[in-house]
Amino acid sequence: MRNNGFSLVELILYVALLSIIVSSLVIFGVNVVLIRSKIRVEQEVISNARLVSKRINYEIRNASGINSVGPQSISLANINLAKNPTMIAFSNGRVMIGWGSSGNCPTSAPCFLTSSDVTVQSLLFENMSNGTSPQSIKYEVAVKSELAGTSKSFYYKQYATGSAEVRSK
Description:
Elements: H1 8-61, E1 65-69, E2 73-77, E3 86-91, E4 94-99, E5 111-112, E6 119-127, E7 136-148, E8 153-165
Antiparallel strand pairs: 1-2, 2-3, 3-4, 4-5, 6-7, 7-8
């Protein structure tokens, strides 16, 4: 007499192996999603810090002079009347930029340089020239982001510092 079915022991072994494989795949999938979220937070912070730093550098170097420097804002003179004055400021966790009195981003209604996914903790300007020429500005920006998940939260912070000189035109 020949039995063509599974014995109870074989059935228990197959179910146990299948359970181990499925639970391993689920754990692997959850880890992939968590790592992806962490990397997204880091990339967002790094790209925002880099953008702010490069934009500040660009605007200072292309300015014709410095109107005023405050701890959290700077006003730059510009030969181009559409961009005069150029203002960069820190307010409510965001960095803003405005050009002139009309156009897309006037100084009265500046545009955001940083995304809403990050928080700028600080933006500091320091006038290094002390009335001498060339005019030099030192700046420092701290950008952070936090992503809270169901089991983990990801926090990342990036500092960017630099200095730039006004190129006389």
